[in-house]
Amino acid sequence: MKNIYIVLIKAHTGLGKLAKTITKYDYTHIAVCFDNKLTEFITYSRRRHYLPLDAGFMYEYRDYYAFGKNNKVRVKVFRLPVNDDCYINVKEFIKKCKNDNMQMFNLFSMLTMSVIHGFRIYKSHNCMSFVARITELSGAVKMNKPYYRYSIKELDRLLNGYEYFEGNLKRISSKDYEKYMKKPLLSEYFHVSADTIFTLIKRMLFCNGIEE
């Protein structure tokens, strides 16, 4: 048996604080770790702090969460025991997401989660659907609806009984922090944002029902 760690994160970002206000729930981001050091997090998220729509498959680090003047980040961690076959399936899924250059962040599903309760867009995930799919592949819990319809709060409830840690993680510096925090030019911000929205809309209109 191996362990997979599901990590709920109380984000310090403006969007995270807005989501907390709307949902009345502390944790607004979610990721996966493969060791109990909790230093490398795998998820779907923004690639640069100040360019939120430049997003997709990501490896994140503690200083991506405890950025700027923040020296800690609050998390809730679940440890899922996974047999060897399920562990291989999880790793293969992550590898597929990592190596597929067409993968995008499913912005529209995330923004409408509280109303529509999740929907798929061709070759796209958000942090919730990505981690929920890993949870499904782990075989550790029974899921009663499609993985992409689980919110972070629902995953929290689903994983009841697998709690490992809840509290603050201290900031640790990472080598790509400066690159992650670099501010884009205004022209780049608008270009990337418009391209992301246009591509997602195009996939919704023309790729519905296509197998990934």
State the main characteristics.
9 helices, four-stranded antiparallel β-sheet, alpha+beta, single chain, 26% strand, two-stranded antiparallel ribbon, 212 residues
| Principal-axis shape | globular
In which range does the helix fraction lie? 25-40%
**Beta-strand residue fraction:** 25-35%
Strand order, largest beta sheet: 2-1-5-8
The biggest sheet, with number of strands, parallel, antiparallel or mixed sense and barrel status, is: 4 strands, antiparallel
How are the SSEs ordered, and which strands pair?
Elements: E1 2-9, H1 14-23, E2 29-33, E3 40-48, E4 51-61, H2 62-65, E5 72-82, H3 84-99, E6 104-105, H4 107-111, H5 113-116, E7 124-125, H6 127-138, H7 152-158, E8 163-170, H8 177-181, H9 186-206
Parallel strand pairs: 6-7
Antiparallel strand pairs: 1-2, 1-5, 3-4, 5-8
Structural commentary:
The protein has 212 residues and is an alpha+beta fold. 40% of the residues lie in helices and 26% in strands. A hairpin with a 2-residue loop joins strand 3 and strand 4. The radius of gyration is 17 Å and the shape is globular.
Brief write-up:
This protein is 40% helix and 26% strand. The protein has 212 residues and is an alpha+beta fold.
